[in-house]
Design a protein that fits this description.
By secondary structure, the protein is an all-alpha fold. The protein has nine helices and no strands.
């Protein structure tokens, strides 16, 4: 539950169809962070499209890298809801429990490639001190062979998780 009213999908046909389609795609119940959007189904649809695009469409980034960004951003923001959800997704992608735990606690202690470490450092800095990002931070990603599209995708995923963390914190969304 959250601190604002959630609409029961039985009371709204459009919402019911959105939930039904989401559950068919994922094989899971709709997450609470999405249910909080029930008061505005159009926003829910847009949110879900953005999430699916960033996390599942063809990308310069691996699924592992994308989930790592989500966990690093969420850990930095102390968003246990998203650390839990995306930590599980990271485990699902990697089947590496130790990696999942270390990324959730302190990514610098994980055995990451230099590319993965650079991505995590950028995500952490953009989350903590976005006003301090400079071209040199982008150059560090380029040194790890990330092209401009990959850098843009890192930035977008980082921004997305900061957005979702604020939904969770700002509306009191609880873990399922």
């Amino acid at each position: 539950m959250a601190w604002i009213k959630e609409i029961n999908p039985k009371d709204d046909l459009k919402l019911s169809k959105i939930y039904e389609n989401a559950e068919k795609r994922t094989g899971e119940k709709v997450a609470n962070v999405l249910k909080v959007h029930s008061i505005n189904p159009k926003t829910l649809e847009i949110h879900m499209k953005l999430y699916e695009h960033l996390m599942f469409d063809t990308s310069e980034l691996s699924r592992k890298e994308r989930e790592m960004i989500g966990v690093v951003v969420s850990r930095t923001n102390e968003c246990s809801y998203c650390v839990t959800h995306h930590g599980q997704s990271l485990y699902h992608v990697t089947e590496n429990l130790e990696l999942m735990k270390l990324i959730a606690i302190d990514y610098t202690q994980a055995k990451l490639t230099s590319r993965e470490l650079a991505i995590c450092k950028y995500a952490e800095k953009l989350t903590q001190t976005p006003y301090r990002i400079q071209e040199e931070d982008i150059d560090l990603l380029r040194q790890e062979k990330l092209n401009d599209l990959a850098i843009f995708q890192v930035n977008q995923i980082c921004a997305y998780f900061n957005y979702v963390n604020r939904i969770v914190h700002g509306l009191g969304v609880e873990i399922e």
